[in-house]
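Researcher: Re-running this chain for the archive, since the previous output was lost when a drive failed. Same request as before.
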Amino acid sequence: MVAAGDFPPLSELRKASNSEGNIEGIQFVTNDRGQKTAVMIDLHKYGEIWEDFYDDLIASLRADEPRETLASIKDRLCKQGKLGGKVRHHLCSLCAKGIQRESK
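Model: Regenerated structure tokens:
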């Protein structure tokens, strides 16, 4: 999520805007009735803000998806042989014994 301090200061946005209120580096796409339907953003200028906006949008869209516990992810990765080092050895020995890890 974007913190208030991550946005350019309002004074800079005012300097970047023209007399019509448009901001340099941001263009709106309009339909034949003049209604705004999309926006084009200069990613060189506003890339970090866009990334934060996009991450927040994806999180919002996934809000109702089922959750998975860390323990279940570790167990699945262990069974697939994708964990390495001491963690893999410890978890795989639990998996092999059929011991379910308790989530905290």
